[in-house]
Amino acid sequence: MARDKIIDVIAFGQEIGKLGFDIDQSKSFFQYNPEFLESGEFSKLFPFIFRRTKPVQVFTQYQQDTFQGLPPMIADSLPDTFGNIIFQEWLTARGIQKVTPLEQLTYVAARGMGALEYKPVKELPNTSSINIDEIITILEKVLKLKEDTTGAAFDELSLLNVFKIGTSAGGARPKILISEHKETSKIIAGDRETSEDYNHYLVKLHLDDSDGYNKEKVEYAYYVLAQEAGIDMMPSKLIENKHFATLRYDRQHGEKQHVLTVTGLTGWDFKSQPENSSYENVFKVALGLEVPHKDLQQLFKRMVFNVVFRNVDDHLKNHSFIFNKEENKWNLGPAYDLTYALNPLFTFKTTSRALSINGKRAKITMKDVLTIAEEFAIKNPKGIVADVQSLIPRWNKLADELKIPKKVIKNINQDFYKFELI
């Protein structure tokens, strides 16, 4: 049996356990550090899937691209679509053709989203400053996948800089992680500091106007609407009136925060398992984590917002929970990726939601959301619906102030959904 190297899994400065990988069979192995188990500390760090026992645990069922054979809570640390593009380009530039998932984690090392870290670490040189214009130039080259992306087309240090700050952010749109010094405003790569001296941002970059509008401005408008609806989100802003920057909820109070998506917590693949992709299941995960009832109220409000403002890309990886290490308990994490995910300049005959509601992915009715409300004891659900959809008129004003094209404003507005209040 060919095995990859074994790596340490670290959280909050402690070795939690060791992770191994069988290359031939694409299966993984995890064993808790006995001292960590015996300490009883952070006993709810991995609330599902991992058993709190000393023997080795073997995982053979997570073969999808999302997990790559790794336990789901570990696979949450892997870079997603855009991060993988950058990662593969960086490897190619160094003459490395392929790495195993475990080797990829060693490259992620202490630089990933959340609080989990992995050793041994491949040493990467620090880069001290960031030039967003230079990054965008490189990203434009990287994203033209059909062009030759090796050799002289890239400056290795620049590519490495983008890799370091972009690789651990998920999703398909170009993203970088940066830290901004609170006093000097100096910007450095987002994997170097966690201290309170910096504001730590995830930035979604606007590369060009080839789509006919600025998606980042649309997302900022949705952020403002969500804030007014009482949805918990991290403070966000537009940089140079075109790049969307949001404070990272996995970097707070000068410390890394342990966060897991619903996919990472449960092993439900957000890409290939529609039978598990439902709001009911997200609520059940929340109940399993014993979050306070106010979090269920918040989750219901997010569900209503996503229906009313037609965010159909609200999949299982776009809902996360955050671990409170002082109290050894979980809470619903701040909302993120709230936006109009379709292209408003195209016409779609039908749109299907990533998460079903009462068994439906389209034509959601008041009865459907009230069914959810009753099952999970949501207080004043009709009032929540009324409050959220009362914000529909605000879209036109916000979008106009942001100078979003009028046709885009109109087309998005026409796609909003208004419940019949009964």
Features:
422 residues; alpha+beta; 3 domains; five-stranded antiparallel beta sheet; 14 helices; 16% strand; globular
Helices and strands, with pairings:
Elements: E1 7-11, E2 14-22, E3 27-32, H1 34-39, E4 57-59, H2 72-75, H3 81-93, H4 101-108, E5 116-119, H5 132-143, H6 156-166, E6 175-181, E7 187-189, E8 198-204, H7 215-228, E9 236-239, E10 243-247, E11 251-252, E12 255-256, E13 259-261, H8 262-266, H9 279-288, H10 293-308, E14 320-324, E15 329-332, H11 366-375, H12 381-389, H13 392-401, H14 406-415
Antiparallel strand pairs: 1-2, 1-5, 2-3, 3-4, 6-7, 6-8, 8-10, 9-10, 11-12, 13-14, 14-15
Helix pairs in contact: 3-6, 5-6, 7-13, 9-10, 10-12, 13-14
DSSP E strands, number: 15
N- to C-terminal distance: 63 Å
Overall helicity: 25-40%
Radius of gyration: 22 Å
Mean pLDDT: 86
**Strands of the largest sheet, in order across it?**
4-3-2-1-5
What is the strand content? 15-25%
**Which ranges are low-confidence, i.e. pLDDT below 50, for 5 or more consecutive residues?**
145-160, 163-170
The coarse silhouette is: globular
Description of the molecule:
The protein is of the alpha+beta class and 422 residues long. The chain contains 14 helices and 15 strands. 33% of the residues lie in helices and 16% in strands.
Summarize the structure.
This protein is of the alpha+beta class and 422 residues long. 33% of the residues lie in helices and 16% in strands.
